[in-house]
Amino acid sequence: MKRILEFTGTLLLVFGVCGVLRELTGWFSLMGLTRYVTEYFSFLHGRELFADTVIAVVGFALLMIADGQRRAAGR
Predict the structure, then answer these.
(1) Do the beta carbons of residue 51 and residue 36 sit within 8 Å?
(2) pLDDT above 80: residue 33
(3) pTM of the model as a whole
(4) Minimal CA–CA distance to 5: which of 74, 47, 61, 51?
(5) What are the domain boundaries of the chain?
(6) Which long-range contacts (CB under 8 A, 24 or more apart) does 48-53 make?
(7) Count of CB atoms situated within 10 Å of the CB of 41
(8) C-alpha 12 chain-centroid distance
(9) 3-class secondary structure per residue, 9-75
(10) Which of 73, 34, 32 is nearest to 52 (CA)?
(11) Are 66 and 13 in contact (CB under 8 A)?
(12) How far is the CA of 24 from the CAs of 20, 28, 57, in angstroms?
């Protein structure tokens, strides 16, 4: 379970940070996976930066949960 959380958290964190950089600077156009998410959900139109930030924070939270599980298993 830890590996799944780490993998998912890493992907979400990378995609979220790349999405934020893409919105602010126009770089990382190939890493536009989150752009498809914001286009699919109509309530996110105009809030792409917020959505990318939330995706990055959720990825970071998953990494912290995986780290907590690792520390609890190590005791």
Answers:
(1) no
(2) no
(3) 0.85
(4) 61
(5) 2-74
(6) 48/19, 48/23, 49/20, 49/23, 49/24, 51/19, 52/16, 52/17, 52/19, 52/20, 52/22, 52/23, 53/16, 53/20
(7) 11
(8) 3
(9) HHHHHHHHHHHHHHHHHCCCHHHCHHHHHHHHCHHHCCCHHHHHHHHHHHHHHHHHHHHHHHHHHHC
(10) 34
(11) no
(12) 6, 11, 17
Give the per-residue pLDDT at 75: 59
Region of 64 (left: φ > 0; alpha: ψ -120 to 50; beta: rest) is alpha
Identify the residue with better confidence: 42 or 34.
42
Instruction: Between 33 and 53, name the one with better pLDDT.
Output: 53
36-72 tens-digit pLDDT: 887 888 888 889 899 999 999 999 999 999 988 877 7
